[in-house]
Description:
Layout: H1 2-6, H2 9-13, E1 17-20, E2 27-30, H3 60-73, E3 77-78, E4 118-125, E5 142-152, H4 161-175, E6 183-192, E7 195-204, E8 207-220, E9 223-237, H5 238-246, H6 251-255, H7 257-266, H8 274-283, H9 292-306, H10 310-338, H11 347-365, H12 372-382, H13 388-392, H14 394-426, E10 431-432, H15 434-444, H16 448-457, E11 461-462, H17 467-477, H18 493-496, E12 502-503, H19 504-507, E13 513-522, E14 526-529, E15 531-532, E16 546-550, E17 553-563, E18 566-572, E19 581-586, H20 588-611, E20 618-623, E21 628-633, H21 640-655, E22 660-666, H22 667-674, E23 688-694, E24 698-701, E25 716-725, E26 728-735, H23 736-757, H24 764-799, E27 802-804, E28 807-813, H25 819-830, E29 833-838, E30 843-849, H26 858-869, E31 871-876, E32 879-884, H27 890-908
Parallel strand pairs: 3-4, 10-11, 12-15, 28-29
Antiparallel strand pairs: 1-2, 2-6, 4-5, 5-9, 6-7, 7-8, 8-9, 13-14, 13-19, 14-18, 16-17, 16-19, 17-18, 20-21, 21-26, 22-23, 23-24, 25-26, 27-28, 29-30, 30-32, 31-32
Helix pairs in contact: 7-10, 8-9, 9-10, 10-11, 10-12, 11-14, 12-14, 14-16, 20-21, 24-25, 26-27
The protein binds one RNA strand through α14, α15, α17, α25 and β31.
Amino acid sequence: MQEEFIDLPFFKEGGWIKRKCPVCGRVFWTLNPERKVCGDQPCEEYGFIGKRLGRGVESLGEVRRRFIEFFEKNGHTPIRRYPVVARWRDDVYLVGASIYDFQPWVTEGLVEPPANPLVISQPSIRLTDVDNVGRTGRHLTGFEMMAHHAFNVRGQRVYWANETVEYAYRLFTEVYGIPPEEITFVFDMWSGGGNAGEDYEVLVRGLELATLVFMHYKTVEGRLVPIENKIVDTGYGLERIYWFLQGSTSVYEAVFPGIIEWLRREAGLEPLPADLRVALAKRSGRLDFKKPLEAMKVFEEISSEVGMDVDEVSRLLRPFESIYALADHSRTIMWMIGDGVVPSNTGSGYLARLLIRRSMRHLRRLGLEIGLVDVVSRQLEEWRSDFPEYWEIRDEILDIVAYEEEKYRETLSRGSKIVDNLLSRYKRRGEIPGEELVKLYESHGVPPDLVEEKASSLGVRVDTTGFYSKLAELKEKSGREAIKPEEWKLPPEYASRFPETRKLYYENEKLFRFKARVIGVVEGKYVVLDATAFYPEGGGQLSDKGLIRHGGGECEVSYVFRVGGVVFHECRGPLPSQGEEVEGLVDSERRLTLMRHHTSTHVVLGALRRVLGRHVWQAGAQKTLDYVRFDFTHHRPITEEQARKIEELANRVVMENRRVKKAFMSRTEAEKRYGFSLYQGGVVPEKILRVVEIEGWDAEACGGTHCDYTGEIGVIKIVGFDKIQDGVFRVIFKAGVPAVRYIQEIDSRLKRVARLLDAPLEEVDLRVAKELEEKKRLQDELKRLENIRLLGEAERLAAKAVEVSGVKLVAGVVDEEKLRDLALETARRIGDGVVVLANPKGRIVVKVSGGALKKIDARELGRRITEKLGGRGGGVSDLFQGKIASVEGVAEAAGEVLGRLAEKDKGRA
RNA sequence: GGGCCGGUAGCUCAGGCUGGGAGAGCGUCCGGUUGGCAUCCGGGAGGUCGGGGGUUCAAGUCCCCCCCGGUCCA
């Protein structure tokens, strides 16, 4: 099977030589008879550093432009990039390759691709190598993957392996001017994202410039299963190609020269010596800090080449590693936030937070005063012509970065206090144990270097050994949550039994009575019609309810759902028979409320984006009969003024009675016209989209039912805003009838309060405040009087003290709630003696004070008394508290027990 | 979605392991001291100990549930 992919006509007819690499053992093709190894890492060193082997180019943008032009000329349709946040997928947060844009819907053949074949340059983010970024000269967290894709699905052949290889060859030679004999194609197997296929890596002078994958397997339980779809999945690293053409000493210097130079000057650093840069660059392909031993070896080689010792080399490189990392991270942060990620403690927001915090630590390490906002601000400017969409919303992006930066500073200062506490605790030991370090990082976000810094100034050692392995352990512990597959009410086979249902609810959204033919009844309760006006649950909108009238009577439609394109009506009562013509009656009151709620959701989103900023994206929504719960991305607390503004703006749109247009159009056209903000509920996996547009206000891909004019909503009332987690807020609001009812209810409640207070409506709040103040005053007064009463009572009891075996005793039953206070106060009066008080509820307090303490333990005395009277209790040496069953005879019991204890003591003395 | 840490006076926190009388510092108010600035001394006000349930004679403290904040990870 592999031969089919190895011995491609392109190679055989073009005079290519097939060889096997003696180092890695893989098969490769070359035009150079001298070539022995495949040319990949680690088989060959980088041979392009300081050289210009291809066509001269002016900018990264030019490389991208030429790529797209070449494929466009060769029959490919250019497609706009997708956002870096993979909203249409639930298995990943970020787009890591261009093929992510089309998984799983297009690659599974369920949805037509937006064009076929197509060409794209897709910003992609990979955080798995984040520890290497800045240090190896070649790793990035964010890169643009240029790609041409061909989807050979449903028997349609576009092109396959041979053409793909030829395109790659022509691109590199014709467009980028790379000499043909420099190129090798290395054969391998690739797998990822549940798919697999043979692939060729395109290598030039040790650098992999592209990977060409021929995807035609599924991986099932570790085995490869061939699938019908054959997908050409290519990936050309834009930054790498530019780096190669420039011959720079690292990918960072090629891509981010401006930022790097600026940071270097700000940090007051001399440029790195050229020989060191070159020595490092040549070997950087082998550098990987996940393999520390190998990395150490590379460093030793570099050191001996430039004649410095290893420590000197690391010392020189360290600040530049931070600068390079910052250059990379800040651009990725710009992409993420610009595409709608708000830093948070979960999900993709957490990944943004991770990068922001790492970046801030690098800034700190460089001793720079400038904020991360300044770095991101520079990036926005540097990439202004490549990504004008970010430039447009720069204020929002920078505000989010600034807010996150501020929050991390707070976390650090909070953390530094905790560290101070810890240090004072471990100061005597002279060392902070490793587990404290892990706890500090894990629970308080305090990085270990901060602890070390503070500790070393106090001369306390910090045990950092095993910190990372302990962290890794924790990682293991937090298990991965299983992704639940979408649950259908019926298996998909049922859908293929029937033709697609005609959707009358799209043809006329106010059709509530219709005629249709029964084409099936399944499982004794699900009715399938040839056409229906019943809206099936979907897109956050509840299903319709109603009735189906037929020859045998009528049945109640309790739930409606969709499997594929077929609508099923769950019915109760006598069912219609196959082939019969029936009449459907939709509960119109219910549907109208749902429609108002749905359209008002779009109205409110438009208002949120205008008042809070365009970083607001839908993060989940539920429209019920009673209210709408709408979650959205946002970072700062929402002020009362903003809330009012949002509500007012939304209602203005209602009053303006704007048209709500619904149209089906091609995905490409929709994206061109409205941009990616269409996909608020996630990307709809279809070639043809239904776009719901509130004229001049909001446009979203949406399958729900909507009003025709915003005026039909009537009124929108916001109930409240909540922060549901970092970076996500929730608004609850009502529209139409529920809104009116809500306003009525609030109104009548308020009026009831006013009546109770006997105050005019306008003064209700002031009066409540006043009443509360008065209540407080009265409570204080009561407390004061209570206290006086208690003191008087204590005085009275103290006067009744008797003497038992030389010890003063006050004992008896008093009707008193604050029994303990009374006992303490009485004891203070008699000064030296014993007080035993009980109240009718059975609570008992024994207080011993003054010289009596030498002879009597309150606990012993108390225990003996309660034993006598059927109870229990405990306390401290001078105070006993407990409960007894009968309070009769407390005084007698107390006298008797005290007498015995005192006598015993005397006897001892 | 999971793990961990936290919520006690206006603020910063102690107390919690081992249940029994709610505390400190700062701030605030009053009085005195001082020529004034972060002077010193004395006194006072200020608390549903996040909420609910449970165990117990007794819960800030132990157990369960929930809410809120923080943090690490998927």
